[in-house]
Amino acid sequence: MAAAAAAARRVSCSLLRRDHRHLLPLLRPFASSAGGQPQLTVETSVPFTGHKIDPPSRSVDTNPSELLSFFREMSLMRRMEIAADSLYKSKLIRGFCHLYDGQEAVAIGLEASITKKDAIITAYRDHCIYLARGGSLVESFAELMGRRAGCSKGKGGSMHFYKKESGFFGGHGIVGAQVPLGCGLAFAQRYLKEGTVTFALYGDGAANQGQLFEALNISALWDLPVILVCENNHYGMGTAEWRAAKSPAYYKRGDYVPGLKVDGMDVLAVKQACKFAKEYALQNGPIILEMDTYRYHGHSMSDPGSTYRTRDEITGVRQERDPIERVRKLIVSYELATASELKDFEKEVRKEVDEAIAQAKESPMPDPSELFTNVYVKGFGVEAFGADRKEVKAVLP
Amino acid sequence: MATAMALRLFGRRTSIAARGFSSSCETEKAAKDGKPINLFSAINQALHIALDTDPRAYVFGEDVRFGGVFRCTTGLADRFGRSRVFNTPLCEQGIVGFAIGLAAMGNRAIAEIQFADYIYPAFDQIVNEAAKFRYRSGNEFNCGGLTIRTPYGAVGHGGHYHSQSPESFFCHVPGLKVVIPRSPQQAKGLLLSCIRDPNPSIFFEPKWLYRLAVEEVPEHDYMLPLSEAEVIRQGSDITLVGWGAQLSVLEQACVEAAKEGISCELIDLRTLIPWDKETVEASVRKTGKLLISHEAPVTGGFGAEISASIAESCFLRLEAPVARICGLDTPFPLVYEQFYMPTKNKILDAIKATVNY
């Protein structure tokens, strides 16, 4: 055991020193079959609970580089969200901004279990999922600030991040509307027969939308390879789950569709559950995953997040269940890196985020002509005048 | 960066703050003895009165118990109890369907849809159930006690899903009433009228004005008539028609036009369906010109209906084509809001073009 740990440490040291720059721009975890790495087996925090299905084992296989990349990416996401918070307060980001810090393990664990050919669709708390799908920091910040270099060319904003090449279908403002859409994606995937699935993410608030049940019924009827993931952070905006739902056991609400309850703050549990779910869905049709997670920020930047929950609750979760701390403890206990090395990691992450913000700030706002693009090729022919007819005039294209 | 500066220049953040609205010159008017309060407080007062005067009135929606995301429902739960003021889960279709049922049993159901942009899941219930209930049952049943309150309109940074003006979708449905107030004093009276009106109504509240519009509002119980437009500024050269927050923009344009010697008559439609054709026609017969302005996209907006109707009835009197200065035919944009919106300068421009036609 000591020898294995020592071996792991040697490997990871070299990873840290040599591959610093290598790890820096990477935003997806190493494949766990990276040659010659020791295999680690970690138990999840709690066992999985199944509804009409036998849950997978709570022993998860992983390796040092995967754990380190988990740590790095979650730190990156955490840093990005906090930076977005201060950008919003300095009015560089306007409109709506829904932050994901606290829930990073769901995005990372999910990504670790699938490929870029699988599709993910989510609601408006999408910055970190975009990053996990291979999006860049610069594009994220630029989109948040409404600039041209943004992933949606500045036309979408915080709630509408998309990435076609990696199967990230966004980014939706209307609660619950993305789930039937996700089932439609899975429908197409079934025809394509490429062994791909769709993960449709939604929150505990959205779980009460009627369209979810319609989509579930159709998916189950037609055996669509869709996995519905309820990111249960226990509050739908300001409403606690027990006030909104007769049954807050969201993994059971599929009734005839099996479900799994997962500790969403444990990235390894998330990875295991998503891997299991993907295999299941390809054979049998829909399955529901309920991720028990938590968001530190309020619902959005206009919500302090403390009027409907106590500060003690928030700090309690932060101390006991924080996803990044969990991985940090794992890394330190397996001696894959020292605490100070991890702190250096975090400093670099901070620097990277700051550089990305600086770069994003230089991007200009989209050209006013973009107002009319991507809607009609030839519009209704209505003339639109600017503030002064002499200066700006556009016929809708 | 220059574009950002230019955009700010075109913005409408200029002079709406704490501006009283010009008093009307119409007959039915509440006494001017109130305290200056803003729009959400006026609506809050109306709701307090509604629940107080009718023990079978209920207020519900997402997050209304703590006061609502715009503070319109503050204090109601404490005063009237949890069985009359309660939160619903996140399901607009459920909220409206439930409200229709409650109203069908003779109650006053005041349902809130948190943002008008979210009203579409409830569209089927509103159009197919609420609007047709009385008609299809031969007056055996009705859901007249239904009032749906919802904030609508641009707010400066709302983007696609917090800025929409969907009023015209509902104006196309016989059986509903659509009411839009322009100011706190109007809002209180009109909301009480909607609640007490024996027809299902949708009350669109201009969210831009929730804090910004401050006016003296009488504290007592008063109602303002539905389906009556109000001429809020007399003029002789051109008739301007609008509703909601857009009226403040129109009014600024009137003031500017007056400097150039154009006398504008400004009409607040107040109720969109059934709308007060007579007032608008009388005004157009006086001025011979009409301009309509609303935030919703121009094609298919309610301005189109007014325009067609006036063209039919006042064709020979019209001296210029009816002008519509409205939102553009694009989804409500994120960063281009200042270009999309029907601003004062666009309206002024159109006033001049119409008058000099």
UniProtKB/TrEMBL annotation, chain A:
One of its GO terms (molecular function) is pyruvate dehydrogenase (acetyl-transferring) activity. The keyword Oxidoreductase applies. Keywords: Oxidoreductase, Pyruvate, Thiamine pyrophosphate. Residues 73-368 form the Dehydrogenase E1 component domain. It comes from the Eukaryota. Transmembrane segments: none annotated. InterPro entries: DH_E1, PDH_E1_Alpha_Subunit, Pyrv_DH_E1_asu_subgrp-y, THDP-binding. It catalyses: N(6)-[(R)-lipoyl]-L-lysyl-[protein] + pyruvate + H(+) = N(6)-[(R)-S(8)-acetyldihydrolipoyl]-L-lysyl-[protein] + CO2. Its cofactor is thiamine diphosphate. SUPFAM superfamilies: Thiamin diphosphate-binding fold (THDP-binding). Its EC number is 1.2.4.1. Coiled coil: none annotated. GO terms for biological process: pyruvate decarboxylation to acetyl-CoA. The pyruvate dehydrogenase complex catalyzes the overall conversion of pyruvate to acetyl-CoA and CO(2). It contains multiple copies of three enzymatic components: pyruvate dehydrogenase (E1), dihydrolipoamide acetyltransferase (E2) and lipoamide dehydrogenase (E3). Tetramer of 2 alpha and 2 beta subunits. This is Pyruvate dehydrogenase E1 component subunit alpha.
Automatic annotation (TrEMBL), chain B:
Coiled coil: none annotated. GO terms for biological process: branched-chain amino acid catabolic process; response to nutrient. It is found in: Mitochondrion matrix. Its cofactor is thiamine diphosphate. GO terms for molecular function: branched-chain 2-oxo acid dehydrogenase activity. Residues 37-212 form the Transketolase-like pyrimidine-binding domain. It comes from the Eukaryota. It catalyses: N(6)-[(R)-lipoyl]-L-lysyl-[protein] + 3-methyl-2-oxobutanoate + H(+) = N(6)-[(R)-S(8)-2-methylpropanoyldihydrolipoyl]-L-lysyl-[protein] + CO2. It holds the Pfam family Transket_pyr. One of its GO terms (cellular component) is branched-chain alpha-ketoacid dehydrogenase complex. Keywords: Mitochondrion, Oxidoreductase, Transit peptide. InterPro entries: THDP-binding, Transketo_C/PFOR_II, Transketolase-like_Pyr-bd, Transketolase_C. Its EC number is 1.2.4.4. Heterotetramer of alpha and beta chains. This is 3-methyl-2-oxobutanoate dehydrogenase (2-methylpropanoyl-transferring). It comes from Musa acuminata subsp. malaccensis (Wild banana).
